[in-house]
Design goal:
InterPro entries: Niban-like, Niban_1/2/3_dom. It holds the Pfam family Niban2. Belongs to the Niban family. There is one protein chain. The protein has one domain. The protein contains 7 helices and no strands. α2 runs antiparallel to α7. The longest helix is centred in the N-terminal third of the chain and has 40 residues. 19% of the residues are buried.
Length: 154
């Protein structure tokens, strides 16, 4: 009871007025990181489609889809996504001094973990939706892959 009123007053006067602008500033790098994850998934699936259209090889298609399943764990391919979020380091330095925000690295790491989890979910969903269609007529496979990709991106 003794601490509640002064703490509430402090938050209301010194923190709450800045929350909207802080959130807006932080969401830039976070949004661009998640957009990069989306673009990477889109690019990788498009490469699978193009490769299949050139070769019509079902065995190669299976290998490519298996490689897609490992995409979230491919640090080289995921690196551009993670780099977008590293901009938070600079933005959070100002917050650190103004609001005593600590553990900046933890915030960045958790954001990158969520990005990896999003990619894991995307490739898993793609695999689940596409698996029944693998045995389909090879003329329809590329169209099916495109439809599944669009469904996942939705």
């Amino acid at each position: 009871a003794t601490v509640s009123e002064p703490a509430q007053k402090c938050c209301t006067e010194n923190i709450q007025p800045f929350l909207a602008s802080i959130l807006e500033e932080l969401m830039g790098p976070v949004s661009s990181g998640f957009t990069e994850v989306r673009s990477l998934f889109d690019k990788e699936v498009n490469e699978i489609i193009q490769d299949f259209q050139k070769t019509n090889d079902i065995t190669k298609l299976k290998e490519n889809v298996d490689q897609l399943m490992n995409l979230p764990f491919n640090s080289v391919k995921m690196e551009p996504c993670y780099l977008k979020v590293n901009l938070l380091q600079e933005l959070l330095q100002d917050l650190k001094s103004r609001f005593k925000v600590y553990h900046i690295d933890f915030v960045i790491q958790r954001t990158q973990n969520f990005m990896q989890e999003l990619m894991e979910n995307a490739v898993y969903t793609f695999d689940q939706l596409f698996s029944p269609s693998r045995q389909a007529d090879s003329a329809k496979v590329a169209t099916t892959i495109e439809k599944v990709k669009m469904r996942v991106l939705k």
